[in-house]
Specification:
The chain has 621 residues and is of the alpha+beta class. The chain contains 27 helices and 21 strands. The strands form five sheets. The protein has a six-stranded antiparallel sheet with strand order 2-3-1-9-8-10. Strands 4-5-6-7-11-12 form a six-stranded antiparallel sheet. Strand 6 and strand 7 form a beta hairpin. Helix 24 crosses helix 27.
């Protein structure tokens, strides 16, 4: 595990540049550093030692030393790949999981990435061809960004805060990305908050040589076979693949921990891990037991502690208050790397900090099960009949956030929306009309509405219930869930691992039918059935309960001054021209709206303001 940074460019640059870029990633790898420099290419890394603690420092090489690798992540199938490569005559110098990449490249060239079951951001330099390959894993667990330097040069890094240190980069803000953020709480890739910095898309690699700089995708070939779709076969295959994915992600020479909320997903992961480790350490957040209209009581710590007792884990309950989470806001801004306002990320930060204090460098997570196996409450409302509703053209802002309205009335309105607007209304936050009132029209002139992501998903085709799930897998899962876990565990030099993001699981869930995911009011049907013998009925029968931070409650009380600061004439938002003088009045009206929960929409702008103050008027580099 590490952070990587570098550049490919014709002329040489001062070595201090790469040193500064790499040092900005020290939180991703506090244990060691490594560099490589030659004509045309310079790169470096920071390492978090998890596997091969003695000899795994980077860069890594092939036998000839002309394939030079820096990479961030873990290759979970490296033991079997190593055996196969040794049988073909390859010799290894380290026990590091990443060394297999160098030798696989010799065998398969740019098809190397198809063979990797893992999470990774890779920078591979072919010295003979003077060719750089940058690659990212299929699920998008590990980040990798780049910026062009003329026609044939580029600079890259695991994080934007490192990349912006390269001298002379155009750091014009991306107005479209800023507009999109309050709708989602994050900026959809490949765009970033900067107009001239892009993310390498998940499941893609970039080739940069003397003739081209080109992005290409690569396929998921894991579990790439047909399965019987009868209930018994689906349940058995789900059990096998999920167990294999969890077991493979226990690869570590340091102690392993796990998130444990007491819900289905983290309980499955923790139960499998505890059966296969001598000791597992588990962590759960406990905070003010406030009831909200959506999730009910927020605190799940007692359920988690009870199950930890059954498993026999070393369990830690981390108690936090509104003030504790507020104190973490600067870290959410800094380590979110670009504006990122997912409030549950504050819980990730608190757990990662506690894990590091207990010398735990690896944390397993249950993220991804909801998108993969159908866990969100609105999926149970995606009846076949409702797909045939005729759009009524209603331009209101009604969504699942309208908790002052009866659920049946809400659903009746949503049934009249076009599919793209309904996809927003089920899952997301600020409406286009709300952003038009909050933001300064002049700053955002010519901007496209954020519903375009949903329109592009089906490109005019009719949506089926399974399409809403698949859209979440391709959009919400990588851009919110994977980004949140990576950035906010790495803030404390902890590696988050996601078994439900394994290529095997990703391939498996795409084969399932909607009734394998949702049956009546039962969500994640196949996953629940697959683990009924491993978990108590109190968990397998428990409804979905997300980690819900009571933002709406706090903005009316303990955090009210944050709203005032954000919408004042002295705020960075105002100074940049993004908001106008009446924005404060509109924001207050939204927060105190009795019919709709707008707290997360306003929290987006609070975080955006804090990020602007730190990045433009301060220093998050």
């Amino acid at each position: 595990m590490c952070g990587i940074a570098g550049y490919k460019i014709d002329q040489k640059f001062d070595s201090k540049i790469i040193k500064q870029m790499v040092e900005a990633l020290v939180h991703r790898g506090p244990d060691s550093e490594g560099y490589h420099s030659e004509d045309g290419y310079t790169a470096g890394m920071r390492r978090l030692k998890i596997n091969d603690l003695k000899s795994g420092d980077q860069p890594l090489f092939n036998e000839k030393g002309d394939i030079i690798l820096f990479y961030n992540g873990e290759i979970y199938n490296s033991p079997s790949l190593r055996i196969a490569l040794e049988e073909r005559g390859h010799s290894f110098k380290t026990n590091c999981d990443g060394e297999v990449i160098c030798h696989l490249y010799e065998e398969y060239g740019s098809a190397v990435f198809e063979h990797l079951d893992g999470m990774f951001a890779i920078a591979l330099w072919d010295q003979q061809k003077k060719c750089l390959l940058l690659a990212r894993d299929l699920a998008g667990e590990k980040p990798l960004y780049y910026a062009m330097l003329g026609e044939k040069g580029l600079t890259f890094s695991s994080e934007i805060k490192s990349l912006v240190l390269f001298p002379g980069l155009d750091l014009t803000l991306n107005r479209q990305a800023v507009w999109d953020m309050p709708s989602f709480q994050w900026i959809p890739e490949p765009a970033t908050v900067y107009q001239n910095i892009q993310a390498i898309p998940r499941g893609h690699f970039l080739v940069a040589d003397s003739t081209e700089i080109n992005l290409k995708s690569y396929p998921n070939k894991f579990a790439d076979h047909q399965i019987a779709l009868d209930d018994e076969s689906v349940v058995a295959e789900t059990r096998r693949i999920v167990e294999d994915s969890v077991k493979s992600r226990l690869l570590s020479d340091v102690p392993v921990g796990s998130f444990l909320s007491g819900g289905l997903d983290s309980s499955i992961v923790a139960a499998i891990a505890s059966k296969n480790l001598d000791q597992l350490t588990t962590f759960c957040i406990a905070f003010e037991d406030i009831s909200d209209p959506y999730h009910g009581k927020a605190d799940e710590s007692q359920d988690a502690a009870e199950f930890a007792g059954i498993l026999g884990t070393v369990h830690h309950t981390i108690r936090v208050t509104a003030q504790d989470f507020r104190d973490l806001l600067p870290e959410l801004c800094k380590y979110g790397d670009q504006p990122f306002s997912v409030s549950s990320g504050l819980g990730i930060l608190a757990v990662a900090r506690a894990a590091r204090q207990e010398d735990i460098k690896v944390l397993l997570s249950g993220d991804g099960a909801d998108e993969g196996f159908g866990g969100y409450s609105w999926y149970s409302h995606l009846g076949i009949d409702s797909m045939d509703a005729v759009p009524n053209g209603d331009q209101s802002t009604v969504s699942f956030q309208n908790f002052g309205m009866d659920i049946d009335e809400r659903l009746a309105i949503l049934a009249g929306y076009s599919a793209d607007k309904r996809a927003w209304a089920y899952h997301y936050y600020a409406a286009e009309e709300e952003k038009q009132e909050l933001f300064n029209h002049e700053y955002f002139e010519g901007i496209t509405d954020s519903h375009r992501f949903f329109r592009e998903f089906k490109a005019g085709e009719k949506w089926k219930p399974i399409d809403f799930v698949r859209q979440d897998r391709q959009f919400y899962f990588p851009f919110e869930m994977m980004r949140k876990l990576d950035r906010l565990t790495m803030a404390y030099s902890v590696e988050g691992r996601v078994p439900f993001a394994s290529p095997m699981v990703l391939n498996h869930v795409e084969k399932l039918k909607f009734n394998h995911l949702v049956r009546g009011n039962t969500l994640k049907w196949a996953l629940r059935e697959a683990f009924t013998d491993l978990l108590p009925p109190s968990i397998t029968g428990r409804p979905k309960h997300g980690f819900n931070v009571p933002i709406d409650h706090w903005l009316k009380g303990e955090w009210a001054d944050l709203l005032e600061e954000t919408f004042s004439v002295n705020s960075a938002l105002y100074k940049c021209g993004m908001i106008h003088q009446k924005s404060r009045e509109i924001a207050l009206k939204m927060v105190f709206d009795k019919n709709r929960l707008n707290g997360h929409s306003i929290f987006c702008l609070i975080i955006l303001n804090l990020w602007l103050e730190g990045s433009i008027y301060g220093n998050y580099s």
